[in-house]
């Protein structure tokens, strides 16, 4: 358990790490912690977690030759959505406690245009449905059956999203049926304790932010949400201002972790608004995380929330409650760098 001393120590070390001046080396298995990545002219795409690397590459296939940020983020996040081995996004995602795989997704550009779907079932690429909501309806958010009906009308193909592996994990969980949003840094042990094969996480989201060569911004966020949640539960990812927010004058932010905490604090909007007021992406993410921690009587010791921010000049920041949050950065210099985010607790500086 982290003590107050650990907390103060990690705070101090994080502050000193803010001075880290330059982009790190290529990805390693133990990603280096980077408190801030400086501005860079030209296109750049960033996304949450290690699985952001292949997603960024798909986005870069469009961004690199001069494509639009909006198209790039939509294409990028479809990689984990279609990945059966990823149990926290799209196909193969862990179900709710009743065995339904329900997905949340949102997309937004720098002009304030946005669309989202929540608690949608049977569609592998909810991000594409979210974009259609943005482009062909007067609405921002469609949920559940209505979202599925809209997807059908738009010609989306339906399929069962519960893979045999995810179903096995669900049956294993049902033996105790305790809902416990374990911080991702500890999920490896959690999975092993359940005897689960494969994946190490019970919740992760891909949030992706991009700036294109024309200086336009966009973001996308997609997830199967918290494993074993109540049926009908919606997290932060499809809530504009919570799991995702983009403002073309400032930058964008996205989040991962326990969505309820992010919604309570309008997290991504807060990060962007703090950047508007002059905070760096790093400082803005850190302040948003600390607001969450401060409001929890237990100091949020058992929770994970991470924010990732991209300023319009390409500067990047990230901060999380727990050690273990990683993010991937891709630009013309290098396509597959992964960094460890600094955090309130158990930073590698401890
Ligand atoms: C949610 N924020 O549904 C998502 C899940 C997640 O790391 O990101 N977990 O609350």
From TrEMBL:
The active site is at 205 (nucleophile). This is N(4)-(Beta-N-acetylglucosaminyl)-L-asparaginase. Residues 1-25 form the signal peptide. It holds the Pfam family Asparaginase_2. GO terms for molecular function: hydrolase activity, acting on carbon-nitrogen (but not peptide) bonds, in linear amides. The record marks 204-205 as: Cleavage. Substrate binds at residues 233-236, 256-259. Keywords: Signal. One of its GO terms (cellular component) is cytoplasm. The keyword Signal applies. The keyword Thylakoid does not apply. PROSITE patterns: TAT. It comes from Dyella thiooxydans. It comes from the Bacteria. SUPFAM superfamilies: N-terminal nucleophile aminohydrolases (Ntn hydrolases). InterPro entries: Ntn_hydrolases_N, Peptidase_T2, TAT_signal.
